[in-house]
Design brief:
The structure is a single chain. The chain is mostly helical and 292 residues long. The chain has one domain. It has 13 helices and no strands. The chain has helices at 7-17, 21-33, 37-60, 73-82, 90-106, 122-134, 138-158, 163-166, 172-186, 191-203, 221-240, 249-262, 279-291. Helix 3 packs across helix 7 (138-158). The chain is globular.
């Protein structure tokens, strides 16, 4: 299978060979890795199991996060649902699941970088929540992960998935784009709708800075995962309803790359700008330094 160098080329290959977007990714991976397709599928299935486990572990974890800045937030949301304080809907469920994985990551637990550790909660939370709603099988979820991977491959190639290079638009923005496209695929959307969802999610993330307080992946990163997971669901719903993106997905990725290049370094994971540079952010940094 030849390599695709844009999301449009990816769709064209699926049409050319009469196969799904997921199959294009699997076949391409097999051709470059020289591994059997069954082996590649099995590895992705393991990733799915690890994602599901990270949600459960995040909700049950006892370990503090490295900086102690975000602990038990996911449980608070889940308890609020159980006590009837907030609605038991897809927004609340995707939120506590994204928080759970983010907290687990910050406590050095086992997560799947999707596409990065800082954005690890978005894709698992979205997929598990949609699967719960639609009674979707693990096999279908694995295929959706390959679709998410296809989107991530092009973002990484044409722009970046690193906060240190492109800001949080490259981390949480990319994850939301991947998740949105995967949800459309799960709902039997067309390849064009998959790309529209990816574009809509990423467009709403353009310019998002990476400003970790005290340089830790805790504030605002963990809560940002919850917000961006909801954004991914909204983008998928819009695309499935027939709402497209006037700017093609590949061009949105190009815009993200340009913004990342122009973004000042203090807004790219250096903890020198944004929330990290606020009086409270600086105080937290000083206190952590004193205590360590």
């Amino acid at each position: 299978m030849e390599k695709f160098h844009s999301l449009a080329e990816w769709c064209n290959l699926a049409d050319k060979y009469g196969i799904s977007l997921a199959e294009v990714v699997i076949k391409w991976e097999a051709s470059v890795s020289e591994k059997r397709e069954a082996e590649i599928y099995h590895k992705m299935h393991n990733n799915l199991m690890a994602m599901k486990q990270s949600i459960e572990d995040g909700l049950q974890k006892k370990e503090a996060t490295m900086g102690g800045l975000a602990n038990g937030e996911a449980i608070k949301v889940r308890n609020a649902i159980e006590n009837g304080l907030i609605a038991d809907d897809r927004i609340s469920r995707v939120s506590y699941r994204a928080l759970a994985v983010g907290e687990l990551n910050a406590a050095m637990g086992c997560i799947v970088a999707a596409p990065t550790a800082g954005a690890c909660g978005i894709l698992p939370a979205v997929l598990v929540t949609v699967a719960e709603e639609k009674n979707i099988s693990d096999e279908e979820l694995v295929d959706a992960l390959f679709v998410a991977a296809g989107i991530g491959i092009i973002i990484a190639e044409k722009a970046t998935i690193a906060g240190a290079e492109g800001g949080c638009q490259a981390e949480c923005g990319s994850a939301a784009s991947m998740a949105a496209g995967a949800v459309v695929y799960l709902n039997k959307g067309t390849p064009e709708q998959v790309l529209a969802a990816a574009a809509l999610a990423l467009k709403s993330s353009l310019g998002l800075v990476c400003d970790p307080v005290a340089g830790l992946v805790e504030i605002p990163c963990i809560k940002r995962n919850a917000h961006m997971a909801v954004q991914a669901l909204a983008a998928a719903d819009l695309a499935l309803a027939g709402v497209g993106s006037i700017i093609p997905a590949d061009e949105v990725i190009g815009a993200m790359a340009e913004i990342g290049r122009d973004m000042a370094s203090k807004y790219k994971e250096t903890a020198k700008g944004g929330l990290a540079a606020t009086p409270t952010g600086k105080r937290i940094m000083e206190e952590l330094l004193e205590n360590n």
